Amino acid sequence: MSMTTPDGNDAVPGSGASDGDRIDAVLRQAADIARPAAKDGHVADYIPALAGANPDGFAIAMVDLDGTEHLHGDVDVTFPIQSISKVFSLVLAMQKADASSSVRDELWSRVGREPSGDPFNSLVQLEHEQGIPRNPMINAGALVIDDVLLDHCEDSKRSTLELLELLAGESLTVDRDVYDSEQGSSTRNRAMANLMASFGNLRHSVDEVMDPYVYACAISMSARQLARAVRFLANDGIEPDSGERILTPRHARRVAAIMLTCGTYDASGEFAYSVGLPCKSGVAGGIVGVVPGRMGICVWSPPLDGSGNSRAGRIALHEIAERLDLSVV
Ligand code: GLN
C-alpha cells in the first residue's frame, strides 16, 4: 500500500522496509518532483544531434561501491557525455601529474582551480587573465588539459575512451553525428583556443586540440554507465569492481573538490548549497555526482537551465541528497 504525506508525496517506506526499498521510494519521489521542471528548460540546440534529444527522457542511476544499483527511468538510454568528459580528461592529466612533478607544475601553472562565476563557454576572463583558464571544468580549461595530454599520451582520444570503458565495465561508442557536427560548429571554442594560443598557453595547433576535445564530448554513455564510472572518486581512487587504482587517494579527493567548486559552472555555488555533492554536468542533460565512501550517481534529463545544467536533473539531485542525507558539506 502506498502512503501519502500531507503535501501529497508518496511517503518513504517505514522502519520495516529494507534500505533498498527506501532508496527506490526516494528515487520515485525525486523523479515525481523533478520531472515537471523539465518543461521550463531548453534542450541544447547548437547542433542537430542534440536538438533532437527527447525532452521527456529522464533517468536516475545510483550505484553503490559494492555494485548494488538503484535505478529509475531511462537508465540504459545513451547520450553524449559532453562536458562530463572534462572530469575524465582531468583524471588522465592527474595520472600523468602523479607520475611526474614537472607535469604537475606545468598543469597547474596553465590552468587554475577557482570557480569562474561565468558561463562554461565564456571568453571574458581569458582576456583579463592572460589566457589562463580558471579551472579544468569549463571549456577553455578542458582545452588546455587536452593540449597537455597531447604531449603525454600516445593517443589521448584512445586513452580517454579506454579509461571510460574500464570504469563503466563495458565497451562504449562515440556518436559520429555529434563528433562531426561539433567539429564544424565549434567557432566559440576555437576562439578560446586561439586566444589562449595568443597568450602562449597552447602548444599544439587549434585543430589538434579541438579533435580530442570534441571526441570526448561525443562519447555516448547511459546514466547507469556514468554512475558506475564515477564510483572510483567515491572510493579513494580505486575502481571498486576490479580493484584497479585509477588515482591516488589525494588526487581523487582533489578531482572531487574541483567538481564541487567548479563542476556546474556559474551554478556551482548553488549546487554546493542545494545538493552538496561533487557534481559535473554536460550540455546533453547528464549530471554525475559523487557520494564519498558510498556511491556514484547520474541523473539525465535533456532540458537545461540558463547555466547549461539539466533543470530537472538538479532538482532530482537536490531531492535525493536531502532525503538520503548525502551532502558532504
Ligand atoms: N560540446 C560542448 C561545448 O564544447 C560541451 C559543453 C558542455 O557540455 N557544457 O560547448
Account of the 3D structure:
- With 329 residues, this protein is of the alpha+beta class.
- It has a single domain, classed as DD-peptidase/beta-lactamase superfamily (Beta-lactamase), CATH 3.40.710.
- It has 15 helices and eight strands.
- The protein has helices at 19-34, 48-51, 85-99, 101-110, 124-128, 139-152, 156-168, 176-185, 187-198, 206-217, 223-229, 231-234, 249-262, 268-274, 311-324, and strands at 59-64, 69-73, 78-80, 173-174, 219-222, 279-281, 286-291, 295-300.
- The strands form two sheets. It has a five-stranded antiparallel beta sheet with strand order 2-1-8-7-6, with helices on both faces. A three-stranded antiparallel beta sheet has the order 3-5-4.
- A hairpin with a 4-residue loop joins strand 6 and strand 7 (286-291).
- Helix 3 (85-99) crosses helix 7 and helix 7 runs parallel beside helix 10.
- The two termini are 35 Å apart.
- The chain binds glutamine (GLN).
- Glutamine binds at residues 82-83, 120-121, 139, 182, 189, 217, 282-283, 308.
Based on the model shown, name its key terms.
single chain, 329 residues, alpha+beta, Beta-lactamase, 5-stranded antiparallel beta sheet, 15 helices, 48% helix, 11% strand, disordered N terminus, binds glutamine
